[in-house]
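Lab notebook, bench 4. Still working through the backlog of constructs that have no structural model yet. Next entry is a single chain of 465 residues. Request: give me the structure tokens for it.
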Amino acid sequence: MRDTDQLRSNVLTLCRGFLLGFAVLALWLVYWQVIQAPSLRADPHNPRAKERIKLTRPGRVLAEDGTPMLEGARSNGEWYLEYPGPHDYCHLTGYNDRTGLQVRLRDPLYALGRYEDPWARILRGRTQGCDVRLTINAKAQKLATRLMAGRSGAVVAIDPRDGAVRVMVSAPAYDPTRVLTSSADYAEFTKNADKPELNRALLGQYAPGSVLKVLTAAAAIEEKVADPDDEFDCDGTLDMPGATIHCRRTMGHGTIDMTEALVDSCNVVFARLGRKLGPERFLDYVEGFHLLTPPRLPLLARGGRIADMTGPNAKVEVAEAAFGQGATLVSPATMARLAATIAAGGEVPALRLIESIVAADGMEYPMEKPAPLGRAVSAATAATVGGMMVEVVERGTGSNARIPGISVAGKTGSAQNPAGLAHAWFIAYAPAENPVVAVAVIVEHGGAGGRVAAPIARKVIQAIL
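Model written out:
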């Protein structure tokens, strides 16, 4: 009996092993053939996916009002994408499926992955991709492109209420259709000294210059280091061990309060404020404003950088950073976000670019709006700084941004660089009492921000309002 029981036990163990093996195999097949099937069919390395794309009518990329930026066309029985407004949207669309939005929007545009409709071919005889509606304001985007023609730089405008990107222009622009016309055209494009392929709005790295004084003013007020009416002395220079900081006025401003220092962009006062804050507290606000954090958008973006401020030159480095010079580098998108943070009462908005996905059957699926990134300063501090920025436009260096009947808060900047004339900056938001748009403009080697960048910002704001 014992031998029989042992045999029965061995047979049962062997059967359990076979059953377990079959169960694992079944689960493995279900995982790859059901759960992972959409991603496998959508994989760029899948040759069947490539063939299916050629037979799929692609969806469109649309501006907020439905203006097409990218849409399908057909030739010899195969579908491809074309560019209705090539120069206006080139840095958004890219020029092939490995650049711009075409990389991250491949699945919805071609109904792949989770956007796949397995019944489309059966019921309609063809597959059609989804339309992607962006937050871009077509009118303002086109205007900004024209205003930046012949220049290098960027314009970024966002809605401070929800982080929606209204304008994203990088200059110089290019025609995506021409880039791949021939190998010679592509070579000329990639070797162009002006770097038209670079999306300066998200990837450009610039010293912020005096526009960063907005952050310093906010930090100083929040930390009670100084009030807007506190007075400082400026004789034109600030001497420190190893460095001398120069005011933009050779003879200085004399006795001046912090509001006037922002209105007339006094470097000496803001260098003093940076020293009073100290490296640790100043860097806390750089982090709180997410100054060095790249926006999370379906496009390549770079964060910024700032001096380490832990070495023997920390006092000099924080003084230089406080008025926007030194080792600090930022992107135009992050400076637009800085303006939007003040406009939003001190909360840092998370930027967003996609408004909704519209399926082939017409059903529209709004994208979830991201939560703010956190609070940089109190609402009271933001309101105080905003009031100071209004003064900059009303009677200071930002007067070229005035709009009749609309209160504009802004700040100019002229960022020194070793490659020639200063870069011209301007950041702003409007209407100051109830902001719906915040903007950052940079014109490379433009010189004075108030003279060159502010008028561009004014016209973009007007187009959006």
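Notes after review: The longest strand covers residues 420-430. The radius of gyration is 28 Å. Flag for follow-up if needed.
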